[in-house]
Specification:
Helix content is 22%, strand content 33%. By secondary structure, it is α+β, with helices and mostly antiparallel strands. The chain folds into two domains: 6-237, Catalase core domain (Catalase HpII,  Chain A, domain 1), CATH 2.40.180; 242-398, Alpha-D-Glucose-1,6-Bisphosphate, Chain A, domain 4, CATH 3.30.530.20. The strands form two sheets. It has an eight-stranded antiparallel barrel with strand order 1-2-3-4-5-7-8-9. The chain has a seven-stranded antiparallel sheet with strand order 11-17-16-15-14-13-12. A hairpin with a 2-residue loop joins strand 16 and strand 17 (356-367). The radius of gyration is 25 Å and the shape is elongated. The relative contact order is 0.13.
């Protein structure tokens, strides 16, 4: 985005035809992403936060936005997230969505203000900036609001962080405003913290619909963003919106079935189950898993997680897998995560045949970029990998591995 003067933004900022075309392109992209991520096409995973915003006002220079120019104390509900949902080891555009309820004016409706990690100076404040973490991060609204005195851009800077992670204490940020090419001026302090049981929030934010008192969206920003918000927040069709991890192989892919391979082991089902029941052994037989970092004590009961790494050092990605169903000596179902490729549903079944056992692995992608791979290619790749996986599992069961 180029620099914007007051006159430019007052008269549209971007030509109507161009902003309409760009808005339609963004909306189309969001509709495509929604096929892969039915719930949230971007910022798929987040951390819900609460806190308060102390507005100090602007005694020396008015911003032209009533909410910013008057001191006050607001309650805040927030969601912190990474835009593409990449693993923590990879840089990603960070987002912080705020739902602010002005405490000094009970009649005012809550306002939604969205920030993304950007640079701080011109032109960096208009450019998304991927980051590894929020330490020293700067964020802006990217597009200005229209105040009574012209365009107003909002910004946040991290002032202090809790030790370890955002869920471990208080995150303090400074609130600033600026003309698009002007200097930043402090106007408040934001304090956020996670609840006793940190997790995501179901809140959906819409900065075009819920605007701060005295601030309005320019027509060109609406043309750019409105279609994307509608596409992102539109309820997914039942067939798409249904949680993929709970689908059967037939419903997960319509008429297609999951990629399936089987092998007859010269070991009883109990010996194979002992290997499956020991989460620390997974890197020994699961192709692609390079190490196991932690295993829940309840493994392999439903809900238990196994924290693994995939890839070869130094290109290692940390992620986890979760048990969705388990029947001892018979069935183990998992949702295996391996971003940036996405998530896969894996069903391992054991058919006891006395001193032998028929072991079957059925697998397919259920979320993420992996679903975009044509199924014929996806199946071929999965089958080759899982044939080797069964070979390794058979050797470990025959060797007496497991608890």
């Amino acid at each position: 985005m180029t620099q914007l003067t007051t006159d430019q933004t007052s008269h549209g900022g971007i030509a109507p035809g161009l902003s309409v075309a760009a808005g339609q392109a963004f909306a189309g992209l969001f509709r495509l992403l929604k096929l892969v991520r039915p719930d949230r096409p971007i910022h798929p995973h987040g951390l819900g936060l609460t806190g308060e915003l102390t507005r100090t006002g602007n005694p020396f220079e008015s911003s032209g936005v009533e909410w910013l120019d008057s001191p006050g104390l607001d309650t805040v509900e927030a969601r912190f997230s990474r835009s593409a949902g990449l693993p923590q080891v990879l840089p990603d555009v960070m987002g912080l969505a705020l739902r602010v309820t002005p405490g000094d004016a009970p009649g005012n409706a809550p306002a939604d203000v969205l920030f993304s990690s950007t640079g701080w100076r011109v032109p960096g404040r208009f450019l998304l900036r991927p980051r590894l973490d929020v330490d020293g991060a700067t964020m802006s609204t990217l597009m200005p609001y229209r105040g009574s005195s012209g365009p107003v851009l909002l910004g946040l800077r991290t002032l202090s962080l809790p030790p370890g992670s955002l869920s471990a204490g208080e995150w303090v940020l400074g609130l600033y405003w600026a003309r698009p090419t002007g200097r930043w001026q402090p106007c408040g302090e934001l304090r956020l913290h996670a609840g006793a049981d940190p997790g995501d929030t179901p809140l959906r934010f819409n900065p075009l619909k819920n605007q701060p008192p005295g601030a309005q969206a320019y027509a060109w920003t609406r043309r750019l963003r409105e279609g994307s918000y509608r596409a992102a927040q539109r309820k997914a069709p039942a067939a798409v919106g249904r949680s993929a991890e709970h689908q059967t192989p037939s419903t997960a892919e319509g008429r297609n079935t999951m990629s399936t391979v089987s092998k007859l082991f010269n070991s009883p089902a109990a010996d194979v189950w002992r290997v499956l029941s020991d989460g620390w052994l997974y890197s020994g037989w699961v192709v692609g898993a390079s190490r196991i970092r932690a295993v829940d004590d309840t493994w392999p009961q439903p809900g238990a997680r196994l924290h693994h790494s995939v890839g070869a050092w130094p290109f290692v990605i940390n992620d986890s897998s979760r048990v969705t169903r388990a029947e001892p000596n018979r069935t183990l179902e998992l949702v295996a995560r391996g971003w940036p490729m996405g998530e896969a549903k894996v069903v391992i079944t054991l058919e006891d045949r006395g001193n032998q056992c028929l072991v079957t692995i059925a697998e397919d992608a259920i979320k993420g970029p992996g679903k975009l791979v044509p199924k014929v290619l996806r199946d071929a790749t999965i089958k080759v990998r899982n044939r080797e996986t069964l070979q390794r599992l058979e050797l470990m069961a025959a060797g007496g591995a497991g608890k």
